[in-house]
Design brief:
Blueprint: H1 4-15, E1 30-33, E2 44-50, E3 57-62, E4 70-74, E5 76-77, E6 80-81, E7 95-100, E8 106-111, E9 130-135, E10 146-147, E11 158-163, E12 169-174, E13 183-190, E14 196-200, E15 211-216, E16 222-227, E17 230-237, E18 240-241, E19 245-246, E20 258-262, E21 268-274, E22 281-287
Antiparallel strand pairs: 1-22, 2-3, 3-4, 5-6, 7-8, 8-9, 9-10, 11-12, 12-13, 13-14, 15-16, 16-17, 17-18, 17-19, 20-21, 21-22
Length: 303
């Protein structure tokens, strides 16, 4: 994969501050709503991502019942986050799960867009969700999004692409041959010959039920994953990923938690929770009390 070594170096540098794996459920942890003006609404907000080059916030907004996903972006100004708008690369269909490489030059996402942006013929079913990526040019302008090839994409739906420091692209996939359940966690990597290798992440993480979202921490020591009933954690050891364990009740309050984003030091995490009738889906912030107090980035920025 292009720039894999450079991206890995950036990841490892970002994670160097975390000498030990930060823990969920530790004394002093807190979970509270993260609801900046113009970002929080009566709709469903989820899957945040911060642009490493501009500081802009990208996130998903959908209907209160979590349908009709669209990626939106907001800029931090003197009066806070701006009114969210669609990014320049937005297409037709639904789009979600934005994620930046640490150098800010590439953004991965999922989309049901048609390659030419045209709506499907009357009565035709739109294509399933696939993994896409879009790159910036030297002037910071987004190019034309590219669909990742088979066997990374499949006839089923793909979810939550996240490139880790080890050079593997982690993602979820529905109904893929060789899986252990309905939707499983997988990883893919492109070799020097251009061919892709795709691997199932195995029974420590996957079950006969659904697993959708694998997020590997910057230092590569921890994975936060979203399954059918909320968020879990797995730690990486000498023999691979450990048996997953569910996060505590402060995070997994009702099993709807999705879209995790860890801070670079691993001591904080944004995620979304469906409030189930109270106010659609909202973003929440977990802290273990030890990390950078200025993450998520403050807006307006401190002078």
């Amino acid at each position: 994969m292009r720039r894999a070594l450079a991206i890995a170096a950036l990841w490892l540098g970002a994670g160097a501050a975390a000498a030990a794996v930060p823990g969920f459920g530790a004394r002093g942890e807190s979970v509270e709503p993260w609801a900046p003006a113009r970002i929080a609404s009566d709709r469903f907000e989820s899957h945040p991502a911060f642009d490493p080059l501009t500081g802009d916030l990208y996130f998903v907004r959908s209907a209160p019942d979590f349908t009709g996903w669209r990626i939106l972006t907001s800029h931090c100004g003197s009066d806070g986050w701006s009114e969210p708008v669609e990014p320049a690369f937005a297409g037709d269909g639904v789009e979600a799960d934005p994620w930046f490489t640490p150098d800010g030059r590439t953004l991965y996402f999922i989309s049901s867009r048609s390659p030419d942006g045209a709506p499907p013929p009357a009565g035709a079913k739109r294509k399933d969700l696939d993994l896409w990526r879009v790159e910036r040019d030297a002037h910071g302008q987004w190019g034309r999004p590219q669909r990742l090839p088979e066997p990374v994409n499949s006839p089923g739906a793909e979810w939550f692409p996240r490139l880790a420091a080890d050079g593997w692209l982690y993602f979820g996939s529905t109904g893929r041959p060789g899986g252990l359940g309905k939707t499983d966690l997988w990883r893919a990597r492109q070799g020097g010959d251009g061919a892709w290798t795709v691997q199932n992440l195995g029974p420590n993480l996957n079950t006969p039920d659904d697993e959708y979202e694998p997020l590997v921490s910057a230092d590569g020591k921890r994975m936060v994953l979203m399954a059918a009933d909320g968020l879990y954690q797995s730690l990486r050891g000498a023999h691979g990923w450990s048996k997953r364990t569910k996060l505590g009740p402060r995070i997994d309050a009702n099993g709807s938690e999705i879209g995790a984003l860890l801070s670079p030091d691993g001591h904080s995490m944004l995620f979304a929770r469906d409030l189930k009738g109270e106010r659609s889906g909202e973003l929440f912030l977990w802290r273990d009390g030890k990390g950078d107090p200025n993450w998520p980035p403050r807006c307006p920025r401190p002078r």
